[in-house]
User: Fold this.
Amino acid sequence: MRSDLQNKSQAPEILAAASLHSSYAGQYRQELLDNVLPFWMKHSKDEKNGGYFTCLQRDGRVFDTDKFMWLQGREVWCFSYMYNHVSPKEEWLQMALHGAGFMEKYGRDASGNWFFSLTADGKPLTQPYNIFSDCFAAMAFASLDKAVPNDRYKEIAISTFKNILQRKDNWKGQYNKAYPGTRALKGFSLPMILCNLSLELEHLLGAQQVNELIPPVIHEVMNVFYQPARGLILENVYADGRFSDSFEGRLVNPGHAIEAMWFIMDLGVRLNDTALIRKACDIMLRTLEYGWDQEFGGIFYFMDILGNPPQQLEWDQKLWWVHAEALVALSKGYELTGDERCLLWFEKVHAYVWEHFRDEAFGEWYGYLNRQGTPLLTLKGGKWKGCFHVPRALYQVWKTWERIQS
Amino acid sequence: MRSDLQNKSQAPEILAAASLHSSYAGQYRQELLDNVLPFWMKHSKDEKNGGYFTCLQRDGRVFDTDKFMWLQGREVWCFSYMYNHVSPKEEWLQMALHGAGFMEKYGRDASGNWFFSLTADGKPLTQPYNIFSDCFAAMAFASLDKAVPNDRYKEIAISTFKNILQRKDNWKGQYNKAYPGTRALKGFSLPMILCNLSLELEHLLGAQQVNELIPPVIHEVMNVFYQPARGLILENVYADGRFSDSFEGRLVNPGHAIEAMWFIMDLGVRLNDTALIRKACDIMLRTLEYGWDQEFGGIFYFMDILGNPPQQLEWDQKLWWVHAEALVALSKGYELTGDERCLLWFEKVHAYVWEHFRDEAFGEWYGYLNRQGTPLLTLKGGKWKGCFHVPRALYQVWKTWERIQS
Assistant:
């Protein structure tokens, strides 16, 4: 059932199945272009100060004006990405430039670290304690530089990337609360995002640096964080790879593992490594089976690999990004392996998402559902939800089904 | 309807109502002595390393062995408090000493700050980033010193208290992520707990120091954090008392305000200030009306004073401590003011608690219910729930109803 990656010919049964689902590409394309991007275009622009509002009520009204750097960077990335990949629409470019101008002017401290948050008018509110602010800033300026090549954007992207590499082994710095040495765990967020980031910056860094960065990350994710006995990926392990029987060590974040598996599949395509793609697809499917709520549907947010109570009180909630990433991973898994389980799971997650996350009345998707699948918060954006996971997933699913159907 | 605080004679209608509820004192006494304290005696003692396990499954089995200093201190306090106030049982004293020995040996860094958490065998895990660890340690050793007077315990309690006073204006130190000056908010947790703590340490500090500490705290809580227009207490305001329209500034924590109101009522009794008691009782009742979930019952965990989505994903959950504190505040409010609304609310919260939080099968109370009132986590103890709020509330409610009925 595995498709040949060199030549995109598909087995006849896959083509038959795909033809039953010929509308997915159109459905996700339409959702992106007619619903989600217009929602952010309409509601998130801060005309007065520059930058974006991201704390948006169900109907798009702004309920908080703080500017969170993760989400500023992600929205710049998103609109420039759409400009680069979907269509060179002037309004998308202007929207990306609007956020980039604000970020460039106010976003960094004197050492070039990106603040976590600013006031509406750009005063620093929260210190640069979180290196993912820097990651999304680098992604933003690299993507914008592809749209409108500019030495300033290049310089911001490259210097931010270099700063991330310098800080990466101790990025929490003074804010790190762990006592040194007692339980030295490593997390898989940063290696994963660095891998993704280096791909985003490849036009600036060159293929060689990217090629050097990829193999150790694949090794870490697929051999160190991955636990073959359970078929699951842990969020944190000891530096030497051992399991830590602690809250952090037992933590499984199904959405994060699923997202990582489509990054790995993309790397598999780049490396023409079908075994890697197969393994990533299997882990993704196993994670979905493990993380799926048999009673109410949807994917749990956090779980404990030993079945103990997780410390996160939001563990049983259904989050938009988890489900958006699952749709991407399942589409890519189906495209690349032809595994029927991907199709069945895609249909299941698709049905859940369109029934529960999508807001027919006011557009965009809810971010946070309770276990039962009704909105826990009716916001469309907040401190952590912005213009990123939904449009990125819609684009990826659209394009993947377009390839499957072609 | 207000009772005379000097002379405990009650109006006839209060006595009649109270006689209808003559069983509360006995019910809460029995719950404390036959269920809750035995549960912790049986399951939480770490015989090998000293100290207490607090991460306990529904049936008391230990699922995580880390030692969180808040909960170590609180359990030492609890067993010595019961020894001091209920009965000088040798097993309670030994249990308190068991935890205190571990804390004394491993709990502090070289500057006398209390770590946030340790491994089972006492290695530091999490730095002293949280001053409430120190508060509960001071409470623990002061209470133990009342049980078995000892210069070492006195010294630990007093030096910890002095250290808290020294650190109080910048207690987060290097771990503070707020950029200085942009939005300088103050919270009401620390003044409240310092007030409570000074009462706990009065035998060591002397009445004068305690009397100096009380009036500014009462002023802060009842005039600065309290918002008369809405009848609610905010968690955070600007240094000059202004409202901050931000996630932190809009935050209401009904359980915290309700708990604070019984601390204030206790201060009102001490100061013989009936107007203060009346005001605290009114704020408590208003907070309950505001925080009560009309659809499923129980008190919400977090709310936004402007009705916006709170940033805490656990906002709609029903937590044990919130409800335990409400039972105490309502009992005291009824005792001290005779306000019938306190009695009606007590009956309502009592019914909710005994139906939803209490675990008939395995003892103790669940800590975390979902909005609908079923256990979200079936644990009896964890990183934040230990041997503290439930036994303290059971004792307070028992003794208050004993006075009401006498």
Notes: Residues 2-168+185-405 of chain B form a domain with the Glycosyltransferase fold (CATH 1.50.10.10). Chain B touches chain A at residues 57, 63-64, 66, 115-116, 119, 123-127, 129, 174-175, 177-179, 182-183, 245-247, 306, 308-311, 313-317, 368, 370-371, 376-379, 382-383 (CB under 8 Å). Residues 23-43 of chain B form the longest helix (21 residues). Chain B has one domain: 2-168+185-405.
